[in-house]
Amino acid sequence: MQYPDIELEKSLWKKGFKYVVGIDEAGRGPLAGPVAAGAVVIDNDKQVVEKVRDSKKMTEKQREEAFDKIKDISTAWGVGLVDSKEIDRIGIQEAVKKAMIIALVQVEKKLGKKADFLIVDGINVMPIIGYKMKRIKHGDLNHYSIAAGSVLAKVERDRLMKEYAKQYPEYGFDRHVGYGTKLHMDMLKEHGPCDIHRKCFAPVKRVLNTK
């Protein structure tokens, strides 16, 4: 089982970058609901929460347990959410960037100063202007701050989708959190898109065109 380390963070600290922010998103691919981004800053190895890794490889119980611990012992953290209407308006790439900036602003409010360096999961993420930034393939697998950010984003988003499940019970959002599972596609075809569906995403668009 692979766990991330803080070797990259340590090397950046040594170069004088005190506040290194690990950032990751959750919910880029779903057909409904917001995209979320989590951002985490630590400054020593005592702030590493045990068993934290890429949120997709953790169980829901493990993520929930890690969520509060990350917030409690990290130097700073933030979570940004961009809703489906905004995703339709600006596109998913811009929406991911916007969610990351929202999370980053929350981190900087807690720090009381600008972040020194951003380490971000994914090589195709749009750059955030005005920051030194490293985009990393499989960043959430290898680097703790990014993995911790992925946990915050995933838990926050999943909780919100479970709230939406109460508002729109016919779609089963509590079971698939908006991803294009067979159940979700069947419900989408039966009921048509609801208010939180991403109308710009092809499977939703196809259903809209047949209604």
Model description:
The protein is of the alpha/beta class. The protein has a single domain, classed as Nucleotidyltransferase, domain 5. 47% of the residues lie in helices and 14% in strands. It has a 5-stranded mixed sheet. A hairpin with an 8-residue loop joins strand 1 (20-26) and strand 2. Helix 2 (60-73) crosses helix 6 (144-167). The longest helix is centred in the last third of the chain and has 24 residues, at 144-167. It is elongated and about 60 Å long. The model has no long low-confidence stretch (mean pLDDT 97).
Topology:
Elements: H1 7-14, E1 20-26, E2 35-41, H2 60-73, E3 76-82, H3 84-90, H4 92-111, E4 117-121, E5 133-136, H5 139-142, H6 144-167, H7 173-176, H8 182-191, H9 202-210
Parallel strand pairs: 1-4, 4-5
Antiparallel strand pairs: 1-2, 2-3
Helix pairs in contact: 2-6, 3-4
- Strand fraction band? 5-15%
**Strand order in space, largest sheet:** 3-2-1-4-5
Distance between the termini: 46 Å
* Uncertain spans: none
Overall strand count: 5
What is the total domain count?
A: 1
> Mind telling me which CATH architecture this is?
2-Layer Sandwich
CATH topology: the name is: Nucleotidyltransferase, domain 5
Choose one word for the global shape. Answer: elongated
What is the SS-derived class?
Answer: alpha/beta
The radius of gyration computed from the alpha-carbon positions, rounded to a whole number of angstroms, is 17 Å
